[in-house]
Amino acid sequence: MIDLSKAITIADDWEEPEGLHELTNRLLEHHPDADLAKTRLAYYYAERAHENQKRDDGSPYINHPLAVATIVAEMMMDDQTVIAALIHDTVEDNEQVSIEAIEKMFGPEVRHLVEGVTKLSWKLVGEFGPQSRKAQETFKAAESLRKMLLAMAKDFRVMVIKLADRLHNMLTLDNLPPHKRTRIASETLDVYAPLAARLGIWQIKWQLEDLAFKHLHPDEFRSMTELVAKSRAQREVDINRAIDTLRVKLAENGISDVEIQGRPKHLYSIFNKMVQQGLDFDQIYDLLGLRIIVNTVPECYLVLGIVHTLWVPMGNMFYDYIAKPKSNGYQSLHTKVMGGHGDPMEVQIRTRRMHEIAEFGVAAHWTYKEGKAKEDETSKLANLRQQLLDWSSDARMSSDFLRSLSTDLFSEQVFVFTPKGDVIDLPKGATPVDFAFRVHTQVGMTLVGSRINGHIAPLNSTLKNGDVCELITRNNATPSLDWLSFVKTSNAKSRIRAYARRVKRDEHAHLGRQSVERELKSMGVEPRDFMGEDRIRDIAQHYDGCQDAEDVLSKVGAGLVTATSVAHRLRGNVQEAPAPQTHRIEAKNSPEGKTLLVSSGFGNLMVRRSRCCEPIPGDEVVGYVTRGRGVMLHRSACPNAIHLRETEPERLIHFEWPSDGSQYPVNLKIVAQDRHALLLDVSTIFAEVGANVGNTRIRTLPNHTAEILVELKLEDASKLSQVMTRIGHYSDIISVLRLFGRGAGA
Ligand code: MN
């Protein structure tokens, strides 16, 4: 037994089978430098891996991968694709087979193709007959279609192998029990044939359709076959006569290297037309068709002229798809003329290359591996990618099933590529800024420009399916707040918002530094002597939530701490207040909206909320014993309280103030990205937390932000922090601030 988890070599006495020989010859036709040794090794490896396996008809399993590889080679695909096709089923069918061994023997490209094909196992979709199209099935199917499209868009060769695999399975469908046949055939019609059409691989598309037709509608298929056979004799005579006439005329004009085909019509497409347009067989099938394949574009037009001198062109039936290719890259000249018996005849004229593209679609791009017009091919591929992903834009090519899936799939998402070919899915409407933050936060933070499909594009451009987006960054660049007005992803939003907050903080710290400097100067000392980082850090512990110099200074800048207090501390001339006794506040009543509180610790005492900082239960508070007007309650962090602590510490009483169930007014300032229904969202949170809303003002600023000033009535600080946290969770909220004193409500 050979260990298939390791790289293996071909045994000396092994004889190459005839089928493999034909395959390698076929491969050489279009790829003279194909790696034949590896192709043989791939066959050998697959033969070992499927050794004990049989196809449904009892033949050795290896016939299947060989057939698939041959179809792939007929489509002129490269050696990597053919090798991957030979071993495409080994991973799934033989536990021993390791993907590492495959990479070791055949390289990373083949590994990646095989993995792609294996992952695309349509098992994911499961059985989706008409009866099972429930929401969940659809969701699952949409999800696997999404995976399929992504894998495909990354490397179309994966799908070419998958389609060849399906084609061979359809060709050998007769050996399966009827229910399986029906399922596979309808799946083929629903998913694979439209995919082949999407990729422009008409060769496979019509074969899949006719085979599915045969198994799904056996009676119609049989009668159609008979009808075609009956009319064939006369048609063949007519066609052959036309071909002979044409060939002579072309030779007279020096065109002898030419291929002329009678154009077959495919059964399923005839059937479809009859059903859809309610026409009779005769009305559709009596049309003669000719296809003329020459070497060069000038020859195409020359042939057209000759065709038009031989037969009378029918008015308005000429299309020049050479000068004006179809969006999927299709090129050809189409004309309709009156044939020999006065019957209309359709003629297509194209070059060999155009023919390859028409028949093999995306697969044709691998026929020229190197060299000329590489750029042209690349842009064509990009175009195809977009076509593929823009599924819903071309409903004609899709089955109902795919159409319903793709509406779900693509109405919400776009797929955008990095220049390296990685796919990133984004919400519809996303911009290069969203793309940048998805690639890497640092890329988003230093973004200065973008190129879409090679062209410079503004950062607020809307990305489309299949776009290749290139990002331009600069080391010292910073995000712009304007981006908030167009970014779509919450990730980008929250990053930009965080940046905005940091900038605010830096601004505050800067302002704070200036005012402390001013204060020190007014005290007659040199600020530089007192404002070292270390020195400020040493006093940070005296201020709520401060750890370093930046914290302290930004609090000063934001007006939460006075510059005087900091200056005094920096100079070291502050007496600490003696550790005060804590008393508990219990509210007795609050008549006429004025809060009147009574503290039990001192017997009855009138306590009022100071207007400068409007404390609420749950805040850390101190009371200032006024001269004759009871006790004034401040938040400990209130600049006035701090000042009092320094100047009249003996008059301060420490209080504990639990919630008493009544509501107290608080003012909030919310700065947010201006958008529809912002106020509604915010109010919903107020309602859910149980806060009552008083005065509210909303102001729109020119930089697309909105400022909401609102007075809330709520029980205590924990309710308030709930409100602030929940509002802060909205990705378009820039800041939520509690306002104190004069800034509030004004
Ligand atoms: Mn297979």
Question: How would you describe what is shown here?
Answer:
With 746 residues, the chain is an alpha+beta fold. It folds into 5 domains: 18-218, Hypothetical protein af1432 (Orthogonal Bundle); 219-365, Beta Polymerase, domain 2 (2-Layer Sandwich); 498-562, no CATH class; 582-656, no CATH class; 664-738, 2-Layer Sandwich (Alpha-Beta Plaits). Strands 1, 2, 3, 4, 5 and 6 form a 6-stranded mixed sheet that branches. Strands 12-13-14-16-15-17 form a 6-stranded mixed β-barrel. The longest helix has 35 residues, at 218-252. The chain is elongated, with a radius of gyration of 39 Å. The site of manganese (II) ion has 4 residues, from loops.
CATH architecture descriptor name of the largest domain: Orthogonal Bundle
Helix % is: 40-55%
Oligomeric state, counting identical vs distinct chains = single chain
Question: How far from one another are the termini?
Answer: 88 Å
How many whole angstroms does the radius of gyration measure?
Answer: 39 Å
Decide which structural class fits the backbone: alpha+beta
Tell me the number of strands: 21
For the record, the count of structural domains works out to 5
CATH level 1 class label of the largest domain: Mainly Alpha
Q: Please count the helical segments.
A: 27
Mean pLDDT: 81
Give the overall form.
Answer: elongated
CATH-wise, what's the superfamily of the largest domain? Hypothetical protein af1432
Give the cofactors and ligands.
manganese (II) ion
Instruction: Summarize the main sheet.
Output: 6 strands, mixed
Low-confidence stretches: 122-133, 369-373, 575-580
Predict the CATH topology of the largest domain: Hypothetical protein af1432
